[in-house]
Amino acid sequence: MDMDYNIYDDSYELWLVPLFICEDEDTFTIEYLDNGEYIDITDTGGDVTEIFNLDTEYEVRVTVKDKNGVQKQQFTRTVIFHRPELISPGEGAIISDANPTFTWEEMDGLVMYNFRLFYYDETYNSWEWVDGIDSYYDLVDSNYTLQFDPEYSLQDGTRYKWYIGALLMDLAGHPYANMESSGREFTYSSGK
Question: Is the distance from CB of 179 to CB of 48 less than 8 angstroms?
Fold first, then answer.
C-alpha cells in the first residue's frame, strides 16, 4: 500500500516535511549535513531551533529504504529556518483602535499564518488566550485586522501580547516547518 508521508509533529514542534512515497514496510531517515558529515535527526523530535541555528542554510537529506534495507529513493533539500518578524503594533505600544491591524514581515515561499492574542490576567498573574478570535493557519497576507465576535472586545487598560505562527509549505502545499514569532506586548486605551 502506498502512503504519503508528511514528516512533522502535530504539536507544531518539528519538521522538514517533504512529501515522498513509502510502502508500509519502508523506513526513512532524515539527516542534515554538518562539517561534511550527515547527522541523523529522524527520531530527534523537538523544536527546529533545538536542531538548527536560525537564518543558517542547511542541506537536509531524506532516504527511503525497503523492508530489506535496499535504498528506494533519496533526495536533498536546502532549508533556512527563521521566525516571523513582527512590525506593528510595536513592543510597549498604547493603541486606541478597538480593531487594530497587526502587521509582520512577509516570509518567503508558500506560507500560511496564524494570529494569536493573549491578555494579562492581573488576578492570576498569567497570560490568557483572548476569547472571540478564531485564527487558524488560514491567513495568507502579512497583516490581520482584529475582528471580534460581537460579545467580545479589547478591554480598556488591559495589556495584550500577540504572536504570529508561520506554517511553511513546499510547492505541493505540504507543511515542512512551523515557526513562531517572539511575542509583542501592547496596551489598549480607548481614550475615554
Answer: yes
**Cβ atoms of 80 and 57 closer than 8 Å:** yes
Q: How big is the chain, counted in residues?
A: 192
- Strand 93-95 and strand 184-188: the pairing is parallel
Per-residue confidence at 62, pLDDT binned at 50, 70, 90?
confident
In 3D, which of 83, 85, 77 has the Cα closest to residue 47? 83
C-alpha 74/C-alpha 126 separation (Å) is 47
Residues near 171 by Cβ (< 8 Å), separated by ≥ 6? 110
Q: Which CATH number fits domain 86-188: 1.20.1270, 1.20.59, 2.40.128, 2.60.40?
A: 2.60.40
* Parallel, antiparallel or unpaired: strands 93-95 and 86-88: unpaired
- The residues spanned by each domain of the chain are 2-80, 86-188
Task: Indicate the range of 84-88, 107-111, 121-125 predicted with least confidence.
Answer: 107-111
What digits encode the pLDDT tens for the residues 136-169?
668 888 999 988 776 778 999 999 999 998 887 7
Looking at this protein, which amino acid is placed at residue 188? Y
The CATH number of the structural domain formed by 2-80 is 2.60.40
What pLDDT, on the 0 to 100 scale, is given for residue 138? 81
